[in-house]
Amino acid sequence: MTFYKYHGTGNDFVLIDDREGTCVLSVAQVAALCHRRYGIGADGLMLLRREAGYDFRMVYFNADGSESTMCGNGGRCMVAFARQLGIVGDTANFIAIDGSHTASVHADGLISLQMKDVRDMDIQDGYTVLDTGSPHRVVWVKDAAATDVVATGRAIRNYAEYQPGGINVNFTQFLGDHLYVRTYERGVEDETLSCGTGVTAAAIAATCRSTGAFDTRVLTPGGELQVSFMKTAPESATGVVLTGPAVMVYKGEIDGI
What is the CATH number of the domain that holds 31? Predict the structure, then answer.
């Protein structure tokens, strides 16, 4: 099987061209491919498939082999992959599990991805819960670098109120005019270097009591992303766009899965 390895600010993925619809992988096979010691190693695996009326369909699996909800960094990587395959040019229109998305490729290689609108937020003391294509709990911290992301994130992810699917947890710190975010991702069950839907959730949650147009710079351990959106009401956001890099690491072949 031929595969491609991509990353978006350190959030890495195995990508497979499945336009012929012949790639059928079990949960165990996906998990084996994503394993960092016995497989290729990745935070997730994605299939690029044909879809009538769209440039392609994005099918995303977590590193544990389960089919997942939307992935913002993965979406940008899929656009870059489709462009490499000659399926799209500088714009793309594709469908994922949370609906349709458009994207554009900038001259400097950065990709802007239209995300789903946020209709409501659960604003609590110290944290905010919202869905940006995947569910997130944005936790406000004074020092994200010193936070035990794995232990604390795993505990929150398994709170009874978020079961059976669990929730992603974003530990977010205000740093002047930008944010710093570290993420515990369900399905990976560990900290990832970046999370696109999580960064988007943090940027929107940071303006939860405000309205207007926003363009927020967000730093993660894996790099920098930009989130822009419009708010006509404090607890919702429209026109949400996530911008950042999508980089091909290598192409390879694997058998024995």
Answer: 3.10.310.10
Question: Along the 257 residues of the chain, how does pLDDT read in single tens digits?
Answer: 999 999 999 999 999 999 999 999 999 999 999 999 999 999 999 999 999 999 999 999 999 999 999 999 999 999 999 999 999 999 999 999 999 999 999 999 999 999 999 999 999 999 999 999 999 999 999 999 999 999 999 999 999 999 999 999 999 999 999 999 999 999 999 999 999 999 999 999 999 889 999 999 999 999 999 999 999 999 999 999 999 999 999 999 999 77
Which residue in the list 23, 34, 77, 195 is annotated as catalytic? 195
**CA nearest to 74, candidates 242, 219, 252, 196:** 196
Instruction: Confirm if 184 and 154 have CB atoms less than 8 A apart.
Output: yes
Q: For the chain, give the number of residues.
A: 257
Q: Which of 23, 34, 71, 208 is catalytic?
A: 71
Q: What is the DSSP letter of 90?
A: S
Quickly count: other Cβ atoms within 10 Å of residue 254's Cβ.
13
Does a structural domain hold residue 102? yes
What pTM was estimated for this model as a whole? Answer: 0.96
Q: Is 71 tagged catalytic? A: yes
Q: What's the first-to-final CA gap in the chain, in angstroms?
A: 9
Q: Is 195 a catalytic residue?
A: yes
The candidate with the shortest Cα–Cα distance to 134, out of 49, 51, 75, 181, is 75
Instruction: Note whether 89 and 174 are same-domain residues.
Output: no
List CB contacts of 63: < 8 A, sequence separation 6 or more: 31, 34, 35, 42, 43, 44, 45, 187, 188, 189
Same domain, 102 and 148: no
In which domain, by residue range, is 29 found?
2-109+246-253
